[in-house]
Task: structure prediction
Amino acid sequence: MIKIAPSILSADFCNLERDIQRVSSADYLHVDVMDGAFVPNITIGVPVLQSIRKHTDMFLDVHLMIDKPVRYVETFAKAGADLLSIHLEADHPEHIAQALKVIGECGVKKAVALRPITKAEAVLPYIEDLDLVLVMTVEPGFGGQAFMESQLDTIRQVRAIIEKYNPACELEVDGGIAPKTAPLVVEAGANVLVAGSAVYKAEDPAAAIRALRI
Ligand code: DX5
Ligand code: ZN
Result:
């Protein structure tokens, strides 16, 4: 089954509760955390996640675009994340492994995220222990960018690795997902689609979510 994860990065932060309710028919709520160091943008952090957790029962899929995530995973887990994605490029492998261990100990689902430059094989050391792999289909940092078709190969390769080592693992894609690009990523093997602009810039977000479910 295809799951849709609206990204609140494209929501109106002054009306966040309303904008979360508008996407309640979706499967996950995607929360983009940016630190101004790993990516050239700063978004939201722990206090906002805590507030979101108080106001919704939706599954909170928290995408950490931060350097050295091992420093913060426990805090984000306690703030209410249901799943935490950490970027493989954000620290040395031993610290990535340590961060994943802490996430698991907190009872939160574990995911690694790949920038477009990162090869699919980079997930191999972790794959058997992951709940989800997130393949970026834009450079992380901003909503509203154009989908990178060149990432379809990476999605296919990650799907093959998942099928071989951990078929229960989900494959999420993030960036430029819209009704035109959704069939391409699903055909390549994605099963969780993040969508910011395609959902929140639409007149009717619920209809936009339905349009992405193919
Ligand atoms: C970008 C973020 C995305 C972003 C996607 O770095 O990780 O989640 O919100 O936005 P759209 O769907 O507009 O490309
Ligand atoms: Zn994201």
